[in-house]
Design goal:
The protein is α+β, with helices and mostly antiparallel strands and 295 residues long. Among the domains are: 70-122, no CATH class; 124-195, HSP40/DNAj peptide-binding domain; 201-276, Sandwich (HSP40/DNAj peptide-binding domain), CATH 2.60.260.20. The protein has eight helices and eleven strands. It has helices spanning 6-10, 18-32, 41-57, 60-69, 76-97, 104-113, 215-220, 280-292, and strands at residues 130-136, 145-151, 154-160, 169-172, 188-194, 201-203, 206-214, 222-228, 231-237, 246-249, 266-273. Strands 6-7-11-10 form a four-stranded mixed β-sheet. A three-stranded mixed β-sheet has the order 1-5-4. The protein starts with 5 loop residues before the first helix and ends with a helix.
């Protein structure tokens, strides 16, 4: 297996911080994402390389192994176990004979990376865990839906429950790297990145929005139609409603994660829009009103 420079792929220094790696990955992932580069084989290959590099460098434990063992970083655990066993055996041999050979170190390299002879060939090791990010809109996570992801060249179907939160991580068991010597497969960890909505702000399971109403409606009262995530709702506006007034629509917020049929609340803030470009008649009426209710 040839050495792959993951730092070079992400365009960061070997001393880069976790935030710098995360920033570089997101920038490149957006640039080469298949949805933005349809039928572009080069972009698709680049996107896979970027994800592979991020899976390693964004995980502190994997990054440490990669920095120390390079292309053989996936075998770091068995390397360390074998090395510890080798030191133990040499210590016992030295105590009994007073000497040992430096060439003994090469034996365990061969057992791991060569013909895998001896006891180490029978040791089962769990496969590598994979990490991936899935970018979604707030509207998309309002309902449970299915997605197909391509991880390490394989298509994986998953059901995304309604109500997942931004930066939430879920584990899909057994969908990581293949185990060694018949060991169990690694797991797949998916982090959800949910974009902000232009009209609704989410706070846990509640939603917040602002609705503009005219001066006449605010003063005299009436009805207004507002948008929610599951359709339009007609609301009564009380007379003399002040700008900044809040109303709550119970159960019209966001679905609660893995609690089907349960929702948060929707909070609406009314913003009174003052009229502009007044006609002469309107100005005259406001002057009459000012005489009745001087400020």
């Amino acid at each position: 297996m040839a050495f792959i420079d993951y730092y070079k792929i992400l365009g960061v220094d070997k001393k880069a911080s976790e935030s710098e790696i995360k920033k570089a990955y997101r920038k490149l992932a957006r640039k080469y994402h298949p949805d933005l580069n349809p039928n572009d084989a080069i972009a698709e290959k680049k996107f896979k390389e970027i994800n592979e590099a991020n899976e390693v460098l964004s995980n502190p434990e994997n990054r440490k192994k990669y920095d120390e063992y390079g292309k053989d970083w996936k075998h770091a655990d068995e390397f360390e176990k074998a090395k510890q066993q080798q030191h133990y055996q040499q210590s016992r041999q030295q105590q009994s004979t007073g000497n040992f050979s430096d060439s003994d170190y090469s034996d365990f390299f061969e057992s791991i990376f060569g013909n895998r002879s001896g006891r180490s060939a029978n040791i089962r090791y769990k496969g590598q865990d994979f990490n991936a990010e899935l970018h979604l809109t707030l509207k998309e996570v309002y309902t449970t839906h299915k997605r197909t992801l391509t991880i390490d060249g394989k298509k994986i179907g998953l059901t995304i429950p309604a109500g997942v939160k931004n930066d939430q991580v879920i584990k899909i068991a057994g969908k990581g790297g293949k185990g060694v010597n018949g060991g169990p497969n690694g797991d797949l960890y998916i982090r959800f990145i949910i974009a902000e909505h232009p009209n609704f702000k989410r706070d846990r399971n509640d939603l917040y929005t602002t609705v503009n109403i005219g001066l006449n409606l605010a003063m005299l009262g009436g009805e207004v139609v507002v948008d929610t995530f599951d359709g339009k709702v007609k609301l009564k506006v009380k007379p003399e409603t002040q700008s900044g007034t809040k109303v709550k629509l119970k159960g019209k917020g966001f679905p609660i994660y893995k609690k089907e049929g349960h929702f948060g609340d929707l909070y609406i803030t009314y913003k009174v829009q003052l009229p502009t470009n007044l006609s002469d008649k309107e100005k005259e009426l406001f002057k009459e009103l000012s005489k009745l209710r001087p400020s």
